[in-house]
Amino acid sequence: MSQQSIFITGGGSGIGRATAILFARKGWRVGLADVNVAGLVETAALLPAGMATTYQMDVRDRDAWVACLDAFVATTGGRLDVLFNNAGIGSGGALADTDFAEIDRVIAINLVGALNGARIGHAYLKRTPGSCLLNTASASAIYGSSGLAPYSATKFGIRAITEALDGEWAADGIKVRSIVPSFIDTPLLDSAAGGSNRSIRDTVTSAGMELTGVDKVADAAWAAVHGDKVHTYVGKTAHRMAFAARWMPGSLRKRMRADRHTEG
Prior knowledge:
Layout lengths: L4 E5 L4 H12 L3 E6 L2 H9 L6 E5 L5 H12 L8 E4 L14 H27 L5 E5 L12 H20 L6 E7 L18 H7 L7 H13 L4 E4 L1 H12 L1 H13 L3
Parallel strand pairs: 1-2, 1-4, 2-3, 4-5, 5-6, 6-7
């Protein structure tokens, strides 16, 4: 059997980098895509020699998707076992104070970018038996998070895409999965928007939610690709929120309202 392969967007840092390291360690060929060239170089340097190729790519650019996937499968003998729709940006702050340009940017990268990957990636995945589309959602996809409305909206969208395509692509032999991590301790949490002086990190920690390490998320990505769960929750916060959303929605609603009152 030829070498298995994974194409990772947002591969220049954070979850994408940790996942690349894990899959490469298990013998997979890795395609790394990101807008951040320096980050791509740093990630590739952490992988075994010859295991990775890098692609500067903006997930909003559909022509770039085609060009990069064509170039990657040319190195794998046509295989694409996993397409990891992972690229995303954070945005924190009260919606009423958030610039429209920031709202548009978050939606275009986090949601439309993932739809681009799914739509364009389907043809490549279909040619590889047992392939998988893996999407990065968030604990913000379990219950909308105060101070993170645009971000939460995109992650709810990722959850919906995963569930819809899990049904739609079953006949093509393509698994569709998501990882639903708690808030991850990466520089993305330092983002702020809309004139707020609070970062996502501030919003999360003030609400008493813990941050999850990227290595745990990479392990979950591996489990999701090889398992049968549509959504794989990662970290205590994600599991607690999922439980509360199902069994104690009133309590979770009160907590989100309390979190809103603590914003600066």
